[in-house]
Fold:
Amino acid sequence: MTTGAVGRFVRLGGLAGRVGASVVGNKVMDIARSDPERQVQKTENLIRNAVRIAETLGELKGAAMKIGQMLSLHEGLMPAEVAEVLRSLQKEAPPVPEEVIDLEIRGALPNYDEIFDSLELNAFAAASIGQVHRGVLRDGREVAVKIQYPLIDHIVRADLKNLKRVMQSLVALVMEVDFEPIWGEVRDRLLEELDYTNEAANMRRMAKLHADVPEIVIPRVVEEASTRNVLTMEYVGGIPPTEACSNQMAQQLRDKWGAVLVQLMLRGLFEHRFLHADPNLANFAFLDDGRVIVYDFGCVKEVPENIAVGYAELWMAGLEKRGDLVPEILGRIGVATADGTLLPVELVEPYIDVLSPILRAEPPFTFGEDDEIYSELFALGMSNWSKAMDIRFPQDVIFIDRALGGHFGNLCRLNATGPWRDIMLEFAGHLGP
Structure:
């Protein structure tokens, strides 16, 4: 991992410059292209910049890799080639040397030898902010220990300026909106993830909220072995996502896991208004009785009541195929044009038409089966490029949409079939009109 401030500045600054120049150059060339040719060139430009971004962000870890992972979660809403490139950022990062990890945990826990009987210094999972180790406490409990990378707090804060430029350039490839609320929300959530005491509090709160939901398993925090940069929890093992999504796994089980993921998301959005907002499938494991284990709570979003109600109304409008109601609903939650006027109905109605099969009663919809939906969504986004250029929206929706889009991709990977209409009505029906 590149840790030097100058080295990271050069890598990120250079990436931002290349992607930004590509965006500007492509827009200039658009003037001389026909519409079909323009769509092809935009897709090729997306792929080219996705490769640049995945290569650089994957090597730098920290906030750089985290932002890359955020961008990789919208499977089905980007060209397959782009999704495949960015998906590489969800893979495990190279581990930190064992002797460095030993120094890190002993520095964070002065009473380490009194708490731990043993700790495997070879990580069994690694991510953008830290890596995870198996261990055993003196009382015999098996634990998983998240240990932050050395200097990661400094690295993340140093990266933020250049990461803003990179992300702004990539967002400009797929939409033209006010970037400031997007960046403000991303920055705040990134900084929250640096504090494992905040994540521990999220875990305790989420476990309490799900105490009567047996389908969700949340590991218990080991308070005496947790600090700002070390988080220890009981070890709960399960089936990893790659195995859970394979064709060797029974379809009935994959359907059940898909339904549990959707219920987790909707419960957080509408009932608890405390949303698990990092839908990377690596944050979950699965049990052969249909339960789902949730591991990572660094990114959790408090959902304002008016936003929750607005999303419920949007879902109900979709269920009733009332696209004419959508602009006013969006306006109430703060989504409108730059001058405050409502979005035109002709801009939103096609999305209702494309997505409505998901909420049909019979036959139940299977994610990942109907490729036309994903290609149509992407085509709509590309064709509405100029119409959507002045849309403004509240920053509260950024991570809600991240959760929705990410779980859309997760359900595609599971090829899950389910009673999505009934599940939606269960959680959103009482909030909608």
User: Anything to note?
Assistant: The longest strand covers residues 130-137. Residues 1-34, 72-81 have pLDDT under 50 and may be disordered. The CA atoms of residues 210 and 365 lie 27 Å apart. Residues 5-30 form the longest helix (26 residues).
